[in-house]
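Write out the 3D structure for:
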Amino acid sequence: MGLEIVEIVEDDQGQAKLLDRILRQASFRTNVAFDGPSAMQDVWRIKPSLIMADDNLPGLTGREMCKRLRQDPSTKYIPIILMSGYSSEERRVEALDGGADDFIAKPYASAELVARVRALLRRSRQGQEQDEEHGEDLALTDSLYVVVYRGQKLTLSAHEWKSLRRLSSTVGSVVPREELSTLLWGDDALMHDGEIDRCMEQLNTKLGGEGPAVGQINMVPGGFRLSVPPSDKPDVVQAR
């Protein structure tokens, strides 16, 4: 991990020093910026392996940074963790919807913070290795997952398929967030908290298409609910 650089963006110098010390003790290299515009220049210049940014930054908020970085092909895949002293579900959802890969509420435990950073970097490396192995024009998968919904066949990722299969087994009932996360990632579920929201968003897009069915999967307190008429229940099958 010694070659991996984490960009720290924190306007509170005390918090910035704390983060810098925690990450350096965990054998990461760091670069520190104290406002959004300076951080953007750093990111474009050094292309860090991961970005940790406070949500409430001068000049450019953390969510605004996420939006700009996701629009730039050279930075769109850099993992981003947003941090905030506000830990409400609304703030967490806004951060994840804005393009962050994870959200950490302050105050945080040093061990958990380092574990989340390592988990995100691990997934990022795995994605890069797959791209290098197969090239941009070729993607291989062990299985194809197909949903038949309103007469249309939709191809899903493994995580989307597993989630929809569980949600469709109890249409109209709330499936706890923790249950879905454990189903997808087992004991490592905590490190993937942000990804479950992205998975639900992608599923909604595929189920909704351009018709009136957009937004079939609803985020509710404590979990997610699939809301479709019984006659429209997706037929979830697997094709190898």
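The longest helix spans residues 110-134.
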